Amino acid sequence: MQSVDNPQQQEGFNSFLQFIRPSTHRTQHGLHIDTNSLGINFTSDSRRRSMDEDKAYGSIYKELSFPHDRHPQATEEISNYPRLPDLSPSSSASSVTSNNEAGHSHTLLSPIPARHQRQLTSPGIATRRCEIIRRSNTLPSSHPVVSPIGVSASSWGNAKSPAASFLSSFASPAEPTYEFDGDEIGDYVLGKTIGHGGFSSVREGFRISDGKKVAIKVTNKTVEINERENQRVQIRLEREIAIWKSLEHPNIVQYIDALETDYATYVVSEYCPNGNLLDMLIRSNDTHKLTEDMARPLIIQLCSALAYLHDKVKVCHRDIKLENVLFDEHGSLKLCDFGLSEYQNPTHATHSPGSPFAEFDEGEDSAGGSLAYTAPEQLDQQQPVKCPSADIWSLGVCLYTLIAGRLPFVDEYRPRVQQQIKTGQYTMPENISSQLEELLGQCFNLNPDLRPSANDILTSDWCAM
């Protein structure tokens, strides 16, 4: 059997095989629909297809170049390392945290209400319009929005038969409003969910054209809060894409692509399989501390990324923390998550002052970030502090935590944490070098103008040891 190269022919074969493929599905009310090439029968039999049937139809799809029509295998569980309260404060809304879920994970993709349907993307920030393609019939049949036969209404659009007309009444929407493991979008296949943030999730994925593993950040186009917050989320995503796609540095997670449907935006990036700095610190030893010699190359790589951002592209990251520093397959450090990033120079702003979205660049929750890593000058401001020195304070928190095994500013009562930060109250780690003690003191200087730059840290006595 020859493989099908023409996309239209491919879709036709897929629709045809979905029609003739014997299958038994349970509806929400317990009804079973058995479809085959001879007709349509209704039965209450709960028998599932045998392994021989699956193997036979799997080989047919393989011959037709549909490699993704398969039953998902159970995902391997990832060990959950204990999260220490003093190491892992509350995350910011833009952050991605570990979320190890086995089995079928899915995300509801809500359609955009009419009041949100104005264009949110600036002309220079292009995303490719795509549709989700559901190759495999692996959706949980009890799900209220899932078709009991796993086909879309468009699949039956050109079919002229009583059977097709009947089945079309059971078909799911032309574009799925849920995403599942194995769905395709553009040149990518979605895998299991590996992380989540306030308004997004991150999935493993791979690129069909070359098999390269990637990470895919999925952000819904509507959030379940209010219209203003929804538009703020979309503006932040737009800004994140605009900044991230302009970056190129060996210690920054590489942006690859951005796609969108009517329901969500998919940002594709380099995949970093070896966890983040917090995971590494927790796994390191019983004390959850690193020696200065172990921490030094990590801080040098992080400073290299910050020096590039601050001096080369004039960007403030604004969310430097252990969870946002990843390790790639080679063990190299990679800075990620540019959801709160801002240009230092206002003329680089994504929206001009006259833009209808300019109002969302300001506001009481625009400051963002994680409190434990926040610079004191930011605590008194409702608008973002777009200054590199704020990132240097956060870098100092990372360095302190790696060496001491605890955060410098931490308390269960948030106002006390804020007071500690504003007054610079922290206990210097014991048994550290004088060079490191001096560097930490400089990073935690309450006067932002007196903090060192990223390049100053790279040339400091401690980094030169």
From TrEMBL:
It comes from the Eukaryota. SUPFAM superfamilies: Protein kinase-like (PK-like). Residues 188-463 form the Protein kinase domain. InterPro entries: Kinase-like_dom_sf, Prot_kinase_dom, Protein_kinase_ATP_BS, Ser/Thr_kinase_AS. ATP binds at residue 217. The keyword Cell cycle does not apply. SMART domains: S_TKc. Belongs to the protein kinase superfamily. This is Protein kinase domain-containing protein. The lineage of its organism: Eukaryota, Fungi, Fungi incertae sedis, Mucoromycota, Mucoromycotina.
